[in-house]
Structure formats: C-alpha cells, structure tokens
Batch of 2 targets.
Target 1
Amino acid sequence: MIATSELRELLYNGGASLVGFGDISALQYGGYTSCVALAVKIPADVVYGIGLGPTRDYFEQYRALNSKLDSLAELTAQYLTRQGFRAMAQTTTAVAESSGFRTPMPHKTCATRAGLGWIGKSALLVTREYGPAVRLSSVLTDARFDCMAEPVNTSGCGSCTACTRACPGRAIQGALWDVGTPREKLVDAKACRRTARALAMERIGEKITLCGKCVEVCPYTRAYLEKENLL
Ligand code: SF4
Ligand code: SF4
C-alpha cells in the first residue's frame, strides 16, 4: 500500500500543479488497476497572450511542459517500481513508440478517474483550478494507494457555451459529456485541425496544429487568469 501523501509531495515539489490517484480496474488494461494522473498548468501570461490567436510562446510552452511532465511521470514510475509494483510512465516517447502517438490509456481518462476534472464541451479536460489550461500525463500501475479519488463521471459545464461560441472552426458541437461519450459527439476533429493549422500558419508561420481559443475563453481559465491578476 502506497502512502499518497508522500508521493504527492514529491510530485508537487517537482513542479506538478495537480496530482490524482484513480481506480482503473474496470477498464481492464494490461493488468493495471490504478493510475496516477498529473497536470501542469500552462503559465497564466502565456494563456492570456493567445487571446488573438496562437503565439510562439504558447507553442514553446507545449514542448517545455511535455518535457516537465515526462520527468514527473518517470519519477512516479521509479518511485512505484522501487516499492515492488509495476508502473508504466505514459511519457511522450513511450506513447509514440507503443502506438503511433495514441496513448493506450488516454491521459484524460486517467485524469477523470483520478478526480482532476471533467471533459468539457471542447473535449478538453477542465479542472476547477486552471480550467483546460493544463497539460497532462499519467502513470499506470498495479500499486494500491491509501487514498483514491472519487472519479468524475459527468460534466461540470452546465449551460456554459463560451467555447462553443468562440471556436473559430465551429468545431465544438455543444454536447454535455458523461462517461462513455465518444469524442466525435463533442468536437468535429477534422474541422478543429483544419482551423488550428490555418491559424498556426497565419500567426506564427509554422506547419503545426495550434489554436487554444477554447482554452482561453473557458470561465474556469478566466478565473485562473483573474487570480493571477491578468484580468
Ligand atoms: S482548438 Fe480552436 S478550432 Fe479546435 S475546438 Fe478549440 S477553439 Fe475550436
Ligand atoms: S468554456 Fe464552458 S462549455 Fe466550454 S469547456 Fe469551459 S465550462 Fe465547458
């Protein structure tokens, strides 16, 4: 049995913004029964800066935060392995090698099982603390934790339509998520990609998929920016 307080402290000290422990036994993946979900917030000034479209800062933060998350996931896996459990850090490298850039167990699934937030109308994980202005990672394990989160099974979006209205690609359908809702019911992925590629080329001259409008307009993100005195 792992004391979550010790691991949590280790991860917060290492730069995690949110840490959760969830039960994934019902999902039956590779004999893993639990997950550690990790989130790192996107700096408030960077999120504030994408009001008019994606920026180079936003693009560069993605890479920097992915690298921080990879280190945190590896740290977690090492910690669990040292205590005799199996643990698989779902790092960017591990995900790319194992399955052509698809996470075997999506980070967002782990995050909802670990109580970090719900899936918004934008199909992004929405946290109460930072809205969708977070990057995610996760570790799968067979470790037992002394304190597991209550999973989140329904949307907290309610009647909000901020992202639906602001999406420049009209990709967000406006549906409310609950467990089992497929991504296609929430967002038209092709329309999102087309728009985000055009915006990234127009704003920063890069052939990448980057937009972020649905991150920036979410009221939970706005509350985070307000707390950081940016609004
Ligand atoms: S990233 Fe941009 S285009 Fe894609 S769903 Fe969000 S707001 Fe719409
Ligand atoms: S903007 Fe509103 S509807 Fe969209 S994810 Fe955030 S809370 Fe949900």
Target 2
Amino acid sequence: MLYRMIKIDFLFFCILAISCQVTSHKVTPYLSNRSSETVPFSPKPKVWAEFQTVKVADWEASLAGLLDLDDPKAKAAGLKDRLEPISIYFYLVKHAKFGTFMIDSGMGENFPKGKDGRLVSSIVESQMHFDKLKIYETTKSYLSKNKIDLKGVFFTHLHLDHTLGAYEIDRSVPFYVGPGEVTSKYFINLFVQGSTNRLLGESPNLVQFDFGKSQNEISVFDFFGDQSFFVLFVPGHTPGSLAFYIPSMEGGHLVLGDSCHTRWGWKEGVTPGAFTTDRKLNRKSLDFLKGLAETHKPKFVYPGHQERISSLEK
Ligand SMILES: [Zn+2]
C-alpha cells in the first residue's frame, strides 16, 4: 500500500516536473489596477469602436470537445460524439484614435506545411483533422489588401486554432493574452509547446495582462479607457481565456471566444467538453457571459467557432 502511494506520489511529481508553459517565448506583464467587476450598464463612448468579423476557414471538430455531452441538456437532446462543422474567425476592432486591433490571428499562408518546414508537429497534426480545413482568408494578405496598420492582437486564448496566423504578423505588434495564459504550467503543454512557439513566430511581442487578482477571478478591463472596448477575463477554457464586449448604438457585440464554441451551447447554456481545461470555472465564466447578455442585450453574440447569434433569433 505504502509502496503504491510512493509510486503514485512519484508519478505525480514526475508529471508536475515535466509540466510546462504553453509557449516558452518571453512574456512581459501588463500591470494595471483599473479592472472592474462588470461592464457599465449603459456605456457611452465619445467615439464608438467599429467592429468586424472575418471568416477565415471552415473546419470540423469533435462534438465531445466542443460540448459537454454529459450535461443533462446534451443528454436530453440525444447528442453523441461526431464531427461537427465549425469555422475559424478573426475579428477587427477599429478605433478612431488608437487604430485597428485584431482579436485572434487568423491563418497563415504556409499553413499547415510552411516553406520553411512544418509549423505544427506531426503528433498535433494527427489530432487536428487538417484534411477537413477549407481556407478563405490568410492573415498577411488580408491585412495588406485592406491596408491595415495593426496596433495589437488580442488572443481569446493560445490554443493552436487561434494562433495559426500569428507568425505572419509584424514582430513589433503586441500580442495581448489574459492573466496566467502563458505563465500557467500543464502536462499537456509538453505536446503543443513546440507548435505554439513556431506559430507565434520568432520573438513575438507577448504581453500578459496582470490585474493583481486571483487567477480564477472574472474581471473586466476598459482597454482604451473610454468605454468603447471591454476585455473580459473569463478563465476556465484556458487559464487566461478572454471574451470581449464592444458597445454599439444598436446594442453591441459580445465575442465569447472558446468559453462557448457553438450556437447550441450558447442557447442552451452548455459548456465546452474535452477542449476545456477547467470545466467548473468555464461554467462560472459562461454564466457571467450569459448574465451580461441579459443585462446588456447585445445585438450579436459570437460563439468561438460558429455563426453569430442575432438578438432577433428565438
Ligand atoms: Zn478554438
């Protein structure tokens, strides 16, 4: 018995010892004490930020990853694991004074096999169903044909499907991530760290928000300080998962990131499944986002990987 306990302890120690960060690139903290608990009830920025969605690709992913199939609602609906159609998006936030920012990084031209070699390791590639990928836009070509001088990229999180275009972005552009997104250590990162490093590209300007709060605390940050663009810290899917609220005169845009991947998941309030790191915390964050949608009545809600939901839908 004692031998078994020592063995389990040793195994636990080994797992802990080889746990690592999602990327080994250097990260700079963005310290601020300006975060708050929620979005002001009726934000009135002097200038409204413009918001735009760009669909990058269609793809497929496992439903058991996208949705918690053990949730009573998923069971009642008879949902079983299968490949579910999904899309990859990036979003643009255009501010008259501060310029254009991107949310997530789209898809690089050399993907999945680059001129300079493979960006994604074969073990990752085998899990990602790249054969089902149908690409519509690539990042560098989109930014140059639309003459966009990018001022920053916000990552909803650093899972590979959100970093596929990062290596094409100018190295001086800040890559903002949520609290703990880079500095948290997990065993699983052992398998993805090399791919994440290559996708973020050489010496990325990685910046991690730090509000001096507990890692599990939901909070809100008025990024430009003028109520035009709110970064929402919604941990759970990953340690530093982000969502966004962009007010507009017609009712605003709520970008969920992968705190909720699917339209069905949002409508039924069912969290993601196996793709989520901490389901309990993801539940709390999804409830927070649902609450925000009820009070602020956004015109559109954007699940991480499916078509936006209009407030006019039932
Ligand atoms: Zn994703």
